[in-house]
Amino acid sequence: MRKVLIISLLLTSLACYAQDINYTQKTLNTLTSKELWGRGYTKNGMSKAADFIESQFKSFDLQPMDGKDYKQRFMFSVNTFPGQMDLSINGKKLIPGKDFIVGQASVGIIAKSNLEQKDSVTFLDAKNRIVVVLQDKLTWSVAQKVNDYTEIFIKKSSLSETPKSLAVNIENQFIPDFAASNICAIVQGATKPDSVIMITAHYDHLGGMGKDTYFPGANDNGSGVSFLLSLAKYYAANPQKYTIAFICFAGEEAGILGSKYFTENPIVPLKNIRFLINVDMVGTGETGATVVNATQYAKEFAALNQINNEGKLLVKINPRGKAANSDHYFFTEKGVPAFFLYTQGGVAAYHDVFDKPETLPFTVYENLFKLFVGFNKYLMN
Length: 381
What we know:
Residues 1-18 form the signal peptide. The chain is built from 8 helices and 18 strands. It is an alpha/beta fold. The protein folds into 2 domains: 2-77 and 176-380, Aminopeptidase (3-Layer(aba) Sandwich); 84-170, no CATH class. The strands form 3 sheets. Strands 1, 2, 12, 13, 14, 15, 16, 17 and 18 form a 9-stranded mixed beta sheet that branches. It has a 5-stranded mixed beta sheet with strand order 5-10-9-8-7, with no helix packed on it. A 4-stranded antiparallel beta sheet has the order 4-3-11-6, with no helix packed on it.
């Protein structure tokens, strides 16, 4: 009965919570801008994104999590492509990102050669150790190593004939000690500051492939960061009895490295975290959302669903079990109760150059905001 009463009171008060949608859209445009260059490993993209997020926390008057510095610094290895990214097939020049991508662990190469067909989609230049593969869709990623060969993936629809020859000039640079930072801030709790609700999202994306092509990363995960910053702005103006903590992680695309580093070097005691909610790819939502770890924390998931259903916020919230697919994972492994929420429906762009802010409708952002505020109040009661 007490639980029902609490949730009823929460639903009554949800109407007075409003997300600043103009701020959210402006933030997303900044995060996906050419200036931040895909929030990645060339042209200081990730560093510029980190500075921007830090500036937002400061503007809201959030405090550094350790009381001194918003940035938790760490390093990891990464293969990058800062310069030339030129490819011609059968004399036709192809466009990086749209017509072709290079395998993320590829070594750089300059070559002109004929290709040997191995099967319907695979072609080889054995002498120069080049593999060409035709694909229906191009998706890129990040590698922490360099192979001794070069992979090139070409969109099938970009070619009108079978690849017979190529001319290629690809530059790679392996960085063994790339410097990155998690950005960490808190709104101190009024009466129970040692009890923490943590909201997280990764801010890194794929960066650039060559000197002229970058991956905006609007849904993945500019949407999550802009949503997190909107919540940070709200909670800065409306402190709660629990401490509300915010972390924007680096290194997620390279293997959820930032969150792994934080759990191994926690700035706040992990035992103090009442609950963690990670958001990654929340820019859609026409068909609802999915929560990873729903089966692990059935009581909290039931409450989340009740708040959602009675408030008519999202179409539905699908339960999913444990999965190592975002920054919640290493927290769960350390015993921290955590959800990972992502929305569904709408655009299908993922890890490609078409994941742009203008493709995201913002149709459920405000209701998702209300859902989070309501769920956090439930956790504190």
